[in-house]
Design goal:
Largest sheet: none
Number of helices: 3
Order of helices and strands: HHH
Keywords: Plasmid
Strand content: under 5%
């Protein structure tokens, strides 16, 4: 969840900063596009990894509960 919040904040700032930087030629040339965009990519990958980990944990817990019910009632 934290990666998602940080991703929203950084991408919102990035869109706003590029709009402001585009107002004059001097600010457009001085604006660094690569650091914020790499941060967005890093946060997106982190969010993807966290969601994958969450799915592994919840699926494992669900299957453990189902295995317990199955063992309890099968015999």
């Amino acid at each position: 969840m934290l990666a998602g919040i940080a991703l929203l904040g950084l991408s919102g700032w990035f869109i706003t900063a590029t709009a402001i930087a585009g107002l004059t030629t001097a600010t457009a040339l001085a604006f660094d596009v690569f650091m914020p965009s790499s941060g967005i990519r890093l946060l997106a990958l982190g969010r993807t990894a966290a969601r994958y980990g969450e799915r592994l944990v919840t699926h494992d817990a669900t299957l453990a509960v189902l295995a317990g019910l199955r063992g309890c009632c099968s015999g």
